Amino acid sequence: MDSGILGVASGAVAASGFLAYAVGGRSSSIFGESYYHGDRNRPVLALTFDDGPSESTPKLLAALDKFHVSATFFMCGENIRRCPDVAREVAARGHELGNHTDSHPFLGFKSPRFIYEEMARAQQTIQETTGVTPRWFRAPYGARWFGVGQAQQALRLRGVMWTVIGRDWHWPAARVSERVLKHAANGGIICLHDGRTVQPEPDISATIEAVEYTVPRLQERGFEFLTLSQFLCPTN
Ligand SMILES: [Zn+2]
């Protein structure tokens, strides 16, 4: 057995493990500043929804209104251009808007220029359509890469991952709810979806059902739901 080859091989495994963490680890800030939880001493939660706005978002807004909950919506530029009225309605109901790129690409292995343009185009569409300038960015698939940090700085965005992701794009509502209820803790950021990348007319019934089941139970447990800005920057 050649220990030199073994050493090289184990180094490569360690490096690929490190890269996987850098790109997709929820606590990784290697490719740019990123948050994945808020104050762990306060009974507060941030509900966040990615991949909207969509034709299905209004039903979710009605569910959130029922429980008087404000959330943060990470929107894609392409979806906003398809559903501009829905984007404006989300903002009008008091929810916060975040940037989730323009066309929802996987950013790994892309050039810094491509990454900047995806983020800048979404930022511009959100501003032009809703009048809101987002301050939070969430990478599609949670995948960061070289250039994300610089683009965040240039666009004055801060990266946000999550404490718990509901897997609501392929799990039924009961399983999503169970996962969210199990992992909800002080300062938690919950990630769900009001769209499916940039597909029109997505079925988000599992998401809505999970929200209707989990939110009142979490409120009974004493949690308050805040937008990301209220949650991560309570002084502004
Ligand atoms: Zn997404």
Describe this structure in words.
With 236 residues, this protein is of the alpha/beta class. It has one domain: Glycoside hydrolase/deacetylase (TIM Barrel, Alpha-Beta Barrel). Helix content is 44%, strand content 14%. Strands 2, 3, 4, 7, 8 and 9 form a 6-stranded parallel sheet that branches. A 3-stranded parallel sheet has the order 1-6-5, covered by helices on one side. Helix 2 runs parallel beside helix 8 and helix 5 packs parallel to helix 6. It is globular and about 60 Å long. It starts with a helix and ends with a helix. The mean pLDDT is 92. Bound molecules: zinc ion. Zinc ion binds next to strand 2. Zinc ion is lined by residues 50-51, 100, 104, 140.
Give me a quick take on this structure.
With 236 residues, the chain is an alpha/beta fold. It is built from 9 helices and 9 strands.
Which percent range describes the beta-strand content? Answer: 5-15%
Return residue spans where pLDDT drops below 50 for at least 5 consecutive residues.
none
What is the CATH homologous superfamily assignment?
Glycoside hydrolase/deacetylase
By helix and strand content, what is the structural category?
Answer: alpha/beta
Distance between the termini: 61 Å
The overall number of domains is: 1
Rounded to an integer, what's the Rg over CA atoms? 18 Å
Let me know the average pLDDT. 92
The CATH C-level name is Alpha Beta
Coarse morphology:
globular
Bound molecules: zinc ion
The major pleated sheet works out as: 6 strands, parallel
Order of helices and strands: HEEHEHHEHEHEEHEHEH
At the fold tier of CATH, the topology name is TIM Barrel
CATH architecture assignment: Alpha-Beta Barrel
